[in-house]
Amino acid sequence: MWFYQFFTGLLGDSLILKNTVAEEDDGIRLSRSTDSLMVSRYNLAGGIYEKLYYNPANGLFDSTTTVGLNTYKSLGTYLTDALAGVAALTLFTETANERYLLGRLRLCPRTCAAGLIAGAQNLRCSINGTSLTGGVITVGFGDLDADADMGTDITSTPITALNQVEVGDTVTLDLVAGGTGFTAAQLAMFEVIAYITKN
Fold first, then answer.
1. CA 111 – CA 150 distance, rounded (Å)
2. pLDDT at res. 1
3. What 8-state DSSP symbol labels residue 147?
4. pTM of the model
5. pLDDT greater at residue 6 or residue 28
6. Which residue spans of the chain are classified as CATH 2.60.40?
7. Which H or E run includes 37?
8. pLDDT, tens only, 36-92
């Protein structure tokens, strides 16, 4: 069975017209996630949906391409003064305007300061006030006190559950209470990046 797919916005404001063929007893479902298009083909024999992603490099759909689905977002850039206290503190808050899975978190030094001589803190994300399962970043003053730290990063523990973000959810980046405060009034800075999968 041949049919035509019309959809806009995949490549700017262009209109794409593409032929698609479906085998007998197969069901075709189209969905779009930001910059990528996905076809879910129902396999009657297997009783499952097979996800095929549009690959702009060759104009075809395949099961491995996830162009536009996997990306990252910045959760902010901060002076280490944000880590000077020992009480819980929310560093970043966002009301989600898209659906995605929160993947690993990474802390990336942006400037360093030799004056950092103390500090050990944990950071983690929460969705609607519920902490992710995993995803803890542990950062110490030695990660931000020398030029050699530039270009490195600190990866969080694996995130294994409670990481689905829905439109309208509140996503926060939080300093966990009970750490050792960083040396105050230093010019070291860091950025926290979340790797996400749009779904």
1. 7
2. 37
3. G
4. 0.67
5. 28
6. 70-198
7. strand 36-43
8. 556 666 666 666 666 666 555 566 666 655 544 678 899 999 999 999 999 999 999
Dist CA 48 CA 55 (whole Å) = 22
**133 alpha-carbon distance from chain centroid:** 15
What SS3 state is found at 172? strand
Q: Which residues contact residue 31 at a Cβ distance below 8 angstroms, ignoring those fewer than 6 apart?
A: 37, 38, 40
- If one looks up domain 70-198 in CATH, what number appears? 2.60.40
What are phi and psi for residue 149, nearest 5 degrees? -75, -20
Task: Report the C-alpha gap between 162 and 171 in whole angstroms.
Answer: 12
pLDDT of 12 reads: 40
Length of the chain, in residues? 199
Rounded to 5°, the CA angle 55-161-34 comes to: 30
